[in-house]
């Protein structure tokens, strides 16, 4: 696609339009984050006067101090981290293992197992039956509802299977001649070879888990000690306009009597930043993996 | 003769089973897991034909036949939900696809690699944040006290007074569409970028010799070349029109716009679970699932007929 040559007027106009549009896209994408960041570091009462752009006008750490010293938030962060780490480790390992099993061409149950998984992409039991199942399994008001049910997803399974299918058989064959068992072959040979696609899948699982709030809402809303950061933010969002949320009430009560005050807007902004920071921190490290791994996994094919 | 063939086949089959017993043993926990968590709930569909009351087993309930479905199809709210779901799905599909294609076309025209990389990296950042965070950002951007959209519109003198965008029913679908584009445009462009990268470069060379400018090249080479990708993705996504997402609508809605925001899952929650009409909610779920399966499979068949790879 080397299109070298003299620049015509058409080229110049086209380039200008493209660059302006792309810069506009970057601004539109980043502005809401940066504005929220500025509000979170700005004095709450001052923010309510409006006009905060990209930079705090009256800098303060008070919003963060107020929120981060709340046990509720601290605990929710702990639960969110725990579920993300556990789900990512267990989920990636289990999905890879299932993918290895169904990638073995000579395996007798290969077609059957693949079909059982693929069908789950289309059929879904629905909200109520799933809820009752979780309840009868003792998974409501339980941490494990975050980890166990979603352990292997059909989509991730197919991505890894496609990747394994693209590897040369000779690795597995020579290991078998050396007398290695199935599990050893999987752990010692397949896992290391799959690193790029596993990094991608691990990122997907981690992001999904960090971002989930509906499972908390559905299964664990009765146990405050199992709340997650996203769910706390969701509650703040839902109640921000009416000031009815317990967290908001508690916070504004705690704040009255001191010179500093927090407002719903400031709480929302600060929570939003706290909740997104982990994603933004991991993002640059893993973003090179996902596009690469995604094309490797052969979504296109 | 037949029996001999049979025995040979069976022989090899059992031989293979024996040989692969470790693999089979490894499979069992996975099968158990997927059956319990994904297939047992389908068994719960029986609830839709009962007047389910919690505390009793599924066999001790009273059977009511298709009563719950009759209630569902006679409920005006159901048709409202159907309309909202379809409208928002189609808006999201059309604008999401068009914006991703345009972004991909623009990015391939950029010759400065670093600039391109930076734009691309930033553009798919929002894909990875949760809808909870995104809904907060959207709410702030659209707020009447200092929200950036109102500020800009007022600076440009397009409006005099700030508008409460999220309180206007007629705007809700478009806000859903716009916020979907904001969040997913970069991510959606990846697949089109890959398709464009796969176009034979000699096509462009010969076009240039014929004196075609860049716009002409885009129109006559790039777009036709990625048309199969576009149509397959469009058709396959059409299969998912009844699952137009739920988090986005749930988190951005409020009492004023609920008649335009209510999608299936919200309906199941508000008219089913919250009212303890568990059987009714199950019937809603069955309707959605069954229609979705039909749509997805027809879409898949259609895509296949267009000479492209199947979804799976």
Explain this structure.
The complex is a heterodimer of chains A (301) and B (312). Chain A has 301 residues and is mainly α. Chain A has a single domain (62-301), classed as MetI-like (MetI-like fold, Orthogonal Bundle), CATH 1.10.3720.10. Chain A has helices spanning 9-40, 44-47, 62-68, 71-103, 110-119, 127-136, 154-165, 169-177, 182-193, 195-211, 214-219, 229-239, 246-255, 264-297. Residues 241-245 and 297-301 of chain A have low confidence and may be disordered. By secondary structure, chain B is mainly α. Chain B folds into 2 domains: 2-49, no CATH class; 72-132 and 164-305, MetI-like fold (Orthogonal Bundle), CATH 1.10.3720. In chain B, helix 4 (76-109) packs antiparallel against helix 10 (214-238), helix 5 (113-123) crosses helix 8 (169-197) and helix 8 packs across helix 10. The two termini of chain B are 38 Å apart. The interface between A and B is large, with 94 and 96 residues.
* C-alpha geometry of chain B: globular
CATH architecture of chain A: Orthogonal Bundle
Query: Quick one: biggest sheet of chain B?
Result: none
Largest sheet geometry of chain A: none
**End-to-end distance of chain B, in Å?**
38 Å
Number of strands of chain A: 0
Shape of chain A: globular
- What order do the helices and strands of chain B follow? HHHHHHHHHHHHHH
Number of helices of chain B: 14
Mean pLDDT of chain B: 88
CATH architectural type of the largest domain in chain B: Orthogonal Bundle
Q: What is the secondary structure topology, with strand pairs?
A:
The complex is a heterodimer of chains A (301) and B (312).
Chain A: H1 9-40, H2 44-47, H3 62-68, H4 71-103, H5 110-119, H6 127-136, H7 154-165, H8 169-177, H9 182-193, H10 195-211, H11 214-219, H12 229-239, H13 246-255, H14 264-297
Chain B: H1 2-19, H2 21-43, H3 67-73, H4 76-109, H5 113-123, H6 131-141, H7 148-155, H8 169-197, H9 201-209, H10 214-238, H11 247-252, H12 258-261, H13 264-273, H14 278-305
Helix pairs in contact in B: 3-14, 4-8, 4-10, 5-8, 8-10, 10-14, 13-14
């Amino acid at each position: 696609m080397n299109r070298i040559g003299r620049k015509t007027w058409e080229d110049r106009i086209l380039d200008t339009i493209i660059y302006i549009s792309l810069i506009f896209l970057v601004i539109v994408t980043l502005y809401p984050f940066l504005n929220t960041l500025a509000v979170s570091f700005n004095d709450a009462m001052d923010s309510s006067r409006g006009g905060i752009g990209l930079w705090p006008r009256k800098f303060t750490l008070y919003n963060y101090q107020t929120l981060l010293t709340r046990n509720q938030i601290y605990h929710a962060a702990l639960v969110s981290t725990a579920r993300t780490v556990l789900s990512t480790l267990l989920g990636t390992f289990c999905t890879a293992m299932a993918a290895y099993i169904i990638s073995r061409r000579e395996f007798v149950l290969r077609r059957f197992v693949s079909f059982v998984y693929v069908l789950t992409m289309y059929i879904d039991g629905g909200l109520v039956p799933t809820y009752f199942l979780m309840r009868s399994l003792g998974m409501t008001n339980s941490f494990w509802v975050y980890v166990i049910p979603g352990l292997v997803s059909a989509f991730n399974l197919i991505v890894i299977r496609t990747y394994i299918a693209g590897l040369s058989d000779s690795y597995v064959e020579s290991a078998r001649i050396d007398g290695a068992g199935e599990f050893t072959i999987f752990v010692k040979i397949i896992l290391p070879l799959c690193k790029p696609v596993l990094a991608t899948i691990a990122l997907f699982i981690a992001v999904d888990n960090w971002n989930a709030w509906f499972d908390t809402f559905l299964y664990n809303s009765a146990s405050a000690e199992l709340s997650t950061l996203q769910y706390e933010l969701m509650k703040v969002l839902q109640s921000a306009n009416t000031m009815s949320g317990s967290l908001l009430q508690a916070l504004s009560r705690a704040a009255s009597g001191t010179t500093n005050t927090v407002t719903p807007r400031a709480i929302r902004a600060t929570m939003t930043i706290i909740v997104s920071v982990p994603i933004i921190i991991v993002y640059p490290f893993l973003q090179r993996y996902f596009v690469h791994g995604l094309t490797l996994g052969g979504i296109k094919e | 003769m037949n029996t001999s063939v049979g025995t040979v086949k069976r022989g090899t089959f059992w031989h293979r089973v024996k040989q692969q017993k470790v693999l089979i043993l490894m499979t069992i926990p996975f099968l158990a897991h997927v059956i319990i968590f994904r297939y047992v709930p389908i068994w719960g569909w029986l609830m839709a034909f009962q007047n389910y009351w919690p505390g009793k087993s599924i066999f001790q309930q009273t059977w009511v036949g298709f009563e719950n479905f009759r209630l569902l199809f006679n409920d005006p709210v159901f048709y409202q939900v159907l309309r909202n779901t379809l409208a928002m799905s189609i808006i999201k599909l059309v604008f999401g696809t068009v914006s991703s294609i345009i972004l991909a076309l623009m990015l391939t025209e950029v010759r400065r690699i670093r600039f391109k990389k930076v734009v691309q990296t930033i553009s798919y950042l929002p894909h990875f944040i949760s809808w909870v965070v995104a809904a907060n950002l959207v709410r702030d951007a659209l707020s009447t006290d200092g929200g950036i959209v109102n500020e800009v519109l007022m600076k440009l003198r397009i409006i005099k007074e700030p508008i409460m965008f999220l309180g206007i029913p007629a705007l809700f679908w478009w806000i859903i569409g716009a916020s979907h584009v904001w969040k997913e445009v970069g991510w959606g462009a990846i697949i089109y970028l890959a398709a464009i990268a796969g176009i034979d470069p000699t096509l462009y060379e010969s076009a240039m010799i014929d004196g075609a400018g860049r716009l002409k090249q885009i129109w006559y080479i790039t777009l036709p070349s990625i048309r199969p990708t576009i149509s397959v993705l469009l058709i396959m996504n059409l299969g998912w029109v009844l699952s137009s997402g739920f988090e986005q609508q749930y988190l951005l809605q409020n009492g004023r716009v609920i008649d335009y925001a209510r999608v299936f899952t919200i309906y199941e929650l508000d008219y089913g679970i919250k009212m303890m009409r568990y059987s009714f909610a199950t019937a809603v779920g069955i309707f959605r699932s069954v229609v979705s399966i039909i749509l997805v499979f027809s879409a898949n068949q259609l895509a296949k007929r267009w000479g492209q790879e199947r979804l799976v």
